[in-house]
Amino acid sequence: MLRGWMGRLLRVDLTRERVTRETLPATLLYRYIGGRGIGARLLFDEVGPETGALTAGNKLIFAVGPLTGTKVPTAGRYSLTTKSPLTGTGFESNAGGFWGVGLKKCGFDVLVIEGRASRPIYVVIRDDHVMIKDAGALWGRLVGETTTRLKQAEGKGALVSCIGPAGENLVKMAAIVNDGNRALGRGGVGAVMGSKNLKAIVVRGTRPVPVADRDQLDYMVYQTDKRLKANPVTSQGLPEFGTAVLVNLFNELGVFPVRNFQASVFDQAEQISGEMVAEHLTISRQGCFRCPIKCSRVVSIPAGTGAGPEYETIWSFGADCGVADLTVIAEANFLCNDYGLDPISTGATLACAMELAQRGLLKSPVRFGRAENFKAVLRSIAYREGIGDALAEGSRHLARSVGAEEYAMQVKGLELPAYDPRGLQGMGLAFATANRGGCHLQAYLVGLEVLGIPKLVDRFAQAGKAGLTIYCQNINAAMDTLALCRFIGLAVGEEYFARLLTAVTGETYQPQDLHTIGERIWNLERLYNLREGFSARDDTLPSRLLTEPVAAGPSRGATVGLAAMLAEYYRCRGWDADGVPAPEKLGALGLSGEGSGENA
Amino acid sequence: MLKEFQQIGRDLFLAGLNNSHSGNMSIRMGDRIIITRRGAQLGRLTARDLIETGLTKNDSRIALASTEIKVHRAIYARTAALAICHAHPPYATALSLTQTEIIPVDSEGSYFTHKIPVFGAELTIGSQEVAAVIPEILQAYKVAMLKGHGIFAVGQLLEEAYQLVSSVEHSCKILWLARQLPGGTAGSLAAKAGW
């Protein structure tokens, strides 16, 4: 009997309006565990080569982990894997909140949505009962209103994950928003949901999660909580300032990108810092399921009250657009939540447009430092009106359309987040090699290069960064497959995760098992991308970061020395010089068939 | 200031009072605290390893500060100390496992400390419990031992706090050695020390 896992997959075919329930093979669970791992496996097996991201052939694979819904701190996340319309890669996105727990308590580890509905619909899952309902009255509505209406309609305990107008209009930066303000933000996954005419998924589950060893779980949870409370980042920095705690830290290091990465120190950073958010905007804190950190803010501004901007949003609409007005940034964040937009890609694409306009390459009223246009521009993106239609395709498409791709600060089509890798060499390698494109979370070398977790390394050094990047990519893939928040990893490491997993499932996992599972996931994701036509050519950075030295500040003179790090990275990964996993490596990971093009 | 932290941090390590990454130090400067970075090697401190943040109020640098900052702040809030040295001296830590207080039997130890209180906590690293009790002890003493963990010593100057750490460990080593000698029982040694 399985513990931790519910052991079942729910498949909803929207074309045929057919629902099936499948038993998940134990071998799949043991080898891939949950969230990101199972998502990668099913995407590879079920979404064939060159399937259009916005076609009926693409699938939305929602998955939780065995720890989800237990008392393990931060174990409330869920994962979505699909093919991204923004990058064309396989794409895993995960979110906190409560929705993932609701899905699991319906009795499912995995929900696969496939096909395309003939009209706008939403799906309701109440324990084992699944209903496909008409969403005609919801289509076109904002996220907040959709969430409120569905919670009222579906009763107490209903948890809502939905898209806003951006997803409906197939904006390639559209998010899926759960619980009103937690998001599967990146990669345009909201557009995939929109392409299926699926407005929302409502879950309402009451089933308990079976646990193998409650005493051991209680003990490990107690130990984990103690460390979360002792660590200054998880017990003070994040609770008090939220993720915006990073603004001043990164600006002081000269790695806070300004005006589309044209500079790396923002002279008005203090005005948009975590300290200023705490002092002037925050009215309360908010946490996800079983989270003692509570890094989310509730803020109040003249435009209203709602979820506060995270570090990345403060950067994307702030320093990256040359804006130092927190109120405007907070309002932009509200609008992104309500339209269902990824604030990182949206702000970064706007910054790209600003530079193109600055250089006379784009006719547009957008200008660095001019925040008064935000409201209109965000609406135009969500509804694909005027200039917004071009912006809705993302920065790479926008810059390419005027023959200036070099001004799109992206990797594999995904806009880079708030870290200038010229002053964080390992982060540069992590951006270039991330399977989903320009993502900071897949390796998150911030721990090593800035916070000193577990130890501080030389942020300008290139030697040895390949090994560190791989280590972090693998263990973070395992964390995503356990569906744990990245922030728990600031206080405890894989030995804790392994013992928590063992206590919940009754299966013995060692820390090294998690590294191996993470490596298996990483390689499988790589194989998917290779099958889609990606190659070593795509493992690169915008030319600005490779050739334009930082002009001023603590990172002055730096560029990313990518070539040497990348060659070392391939070697350490056990891949050939073209970035293709060697047969021996795949054999060791149990992926031999996948490497030869066979599906498992 | 960096030089002082570097010299004392190095001496603590070379004297075996800390292992490679253990211990932390701070000084109070008005309403600011300067404390070693979380995970810093005290024997090899650089400018990036000194973190300045509020004495009572957090700012973003809290994300870089030593895990023990909670205890340091509490000590400054409740005592007149201007400097704190926290280390893991092995003899003192070993004795703390079996005693509720340590009484030096050597002359210098008796002169400086008389008695070293030992406090046992469920979680000894960065915990609220330690932050509540250690400052209370340091209102009456200049040093306090955390059972099985290490020592907190305070002073006006970092060097003064360091001296206390060094002195306590020296006393504990003598105590340990004396107990190996014929007639060196805990009771007889205490009697010789006049306690």
Could you walk me through the main structural features you see in this protein, from its secondary elements to its overall organization?
The complex is a heterodimer of chains A (600) and B (195). Chain A has a six-stranded mixed β-sheet. Chain A contains 25 helices and 17 strands. Chain A has three domains: 197 residues, 4-Layer Sandwich (Aldehyde Ferredoxin Oxidoreductase,  A, domain 1); 174 residues, Aldehyde Ferredoxin Oxidoreductase Protein, subunit A, domain 2 (Orthogonal Bundle), CATH 1.10.569.10; 156 residues, Aldehyde Ferredoxin Oxidoreductase Protein, subunit A, domain 3 (Orthogonal Bundle). The model of chain A has no long low-confidence stretch (mean pLDDT 96). In chain A, helix 2 packs across helix 19, helix 2 packs parallel to helix 21 and helix 20 crosses helix 21. Chain A is α+β, with helices and mostly antiparallel strands and 600 residues long. In chain A, strand 10 and strand 11 form a beta hairpin. Chain B is built from seven helices and eight strands. Chain B is of the alpha+beta class. An eight-stranded mixed β-sheet of chain B has the order 3-2-1-4-8-7-6-5, with helices on both faces. In chain B, helix 1 packs parallel to helix 6, helix 2 packs parallel to helix 5 and helix 3 packs across helix 6. Classes of the chains: A alpha+beta (600), B alpha+beta (195). The interface between A and B is medium-sized, with 26 and 23 residues.
